[in-house]
Design a protein that fits this description.
The chain is built from 13 helices and 9 strands. The chain is an alpha/beta fold and 291 residues long. It has a 6-stranded parallel β-sheet with strand order 3-2-1-4-5-6. It has a 3-stranded mixed β-sheet with strand order 7-8-9. Strand 1 (6-10), helix 1 and strand 2 form a beta-alpha-beta unit. The longest helix has 29 residues, at 170-198.
C-alpha cells in the first residue's frame, strides 16, 4: 500500500527531514516542501521523491499530508495561509500535524479542515532528533478514530510508540504532560550532577550506580556524560523548550492546573538564555548552577 500512496511532508527541520526520509524508505511516494528550498533539494537528492514550491502544490494529490514546523503561527500559515496545504488537499485527505503547538490551534484547524471535507490529527512527537533519525519516536495523537486509522501505518514508519489519546487537541495536551515531566527531571539531574562534583565524588561513578535504581530516567541515561563534560551544543534547544513550556503554562492558566515546578524551571531556562545558551541542549540547566 505504501508504494501506491502519495503523501506530502511540509517542514524539513531537524525532526521533519529524517521523518520524511523514513516515509520514503518505507515506499511512500513523498513530495516535500520547506521554506528554505535548498533543504528540499538536498532531501530529494538523498531520498528521491519530489519537492514543491508551496504547501498547496505539495499537498495536491496526497492522501496524507504531514507537517512539522515551529509554532502556532507557522502551523496556521502552512495550513490555511495564502499558499496553504488545505487549498491543495482533496476531500477525504488527512493532515497530520507533528508540530508541538497549542491545543487551541489544533481544535481551530480541525474545525476548518472538517468544513472542507478534510481530516486533521494533532500528533506531536517525543524522542528528539535521535528518535527521528532512528525512526523510534513516540507519537501522541488527537482526532477521530477514522482519521487515525488512515494515518496509522504511515506514522509507524518513524514511530516506536503511537496512540490515539482522544478528540482533537488531546495529542497536544499529552505532549504538554510530557514536557512538564521532563522539565522537573532535567533540573533534578542537573542538581544531582552539580552536587556530586561539589562533594568531591566521581560523577560518572555516581550516575553509573544510581542509574541502576529508582533514580534512572531517559535523561540520565542519555545526557549524564555530556552534562559532566559540559557539552551542550546539540539536542533539543532551550529556546524550543521555553516555547513548549510557555504553551503548557498558558494551558494551565486556562484549566486551573497548578504547576509550580514547571513555572520555576521555565524561569531557570530563561536564566540559561541570558547566559547565551538559547541553542544549547536542555540539559544545560547544569550551566546555570555554576553561575
Amino acid at each position: 500500500m505504501a508504494q501506491q500512496q502519495k503523501v506530502a511532508f511540509l517542514g524539513l527541520g531537524v525532526m521533519g527531514y529524517p521523518m520524511a526520509g523514513h516515509l520514503a524508505t518505507a515506499g511512500y511516494d513523498v513530495c516535500v516542501y520547506n521554506r528554505t528550498a535548498s533543504k528540499s533539494k538536498a532531501w530529494v537528492e538523498q531520498y528521491g521523491g519530489r519537492s514543491a514550491d508551496t504547501p498547496t502544490a505539495a499537498a495536491q494529490g496526497a492522501e496524507l499530508v504531514f507537517v512539522c514546523v515551529g509554532n502556532d503561527d507557522d502551523l496556521r500559515q502552512i495550513c490555511v495561509g495564502e499558499h496553504g496545504a488545505f487549498k491543495g488537499m482533496s476531500s477525504g485527505a488527512v493532515l497530520v500535524d507533528h508540530t508541538t503547538a497549542s491545543a487551541q490551534v489544533a481544535r481551530e484547524l480541525h474545525v476548518v479542515a472538517a468544513s472542507q471535507g478534510l481530516g486533521f490529527l494533532d500528533a506531536p512527537v517525543s524522542g528528539g532528533q535521535a528518535g527521528a533519525e532512528n525512526g523510534v519516536l513516540t507519537v501522541m495523537v488527537g482526532g477521530s478514530q477514522a482519521d487515525y486509522v488512515r494515518a496509522e501505518t504511515a506514522i509507524k514508519s518513524f514511530a516506536r510508540a503511537l496512540r490515539l489519546m482522544g478528540d482533537s487537541g488531546a495529542g497536544q495536551l499529552t505532549k504538554m504532560v510530557n514536557q512538564i515531566c521532563i522539565a522537573g527531571v532535567v533540573q533534578g539531574l542537573a542538581e544531582g550532577v552539580h552536587f556530586a562534583k561539589r562533594a568531591g565524588l566521581d560523577p560518572h561513578a555516581v550516575i553509573e550506580v544510581i542509574s541502576k535504581g529508582a533514580a534512572q530516567s531517559w535523561q540520565m541515561e542519555n545526557r549524564y556524560k555530556t552534562m559532566i563534560d559540559e557539552k551542550f551544543d546539540f539536542g533539543f534547544a532551550v529556546d524550543w523548550m521555553r516555547k513548549d513550556l510557555g504553551i503548557v503554562l498558558d494551558e494551565a492558566r486556562d484549566n486551573g492546573a497548578q504547576l509550580p515546578v514547571t513555572a520555576l524551571v521555565d524561569q531557570f531556562y530563561a536564566d540559561v538564555q541570558q547566559l547565551g545558551g538559547g541553542r544549547w541542549d536542555t540539559s544545560s540547566l547544569l550551566k546555570r548552577l555554576k553561575h
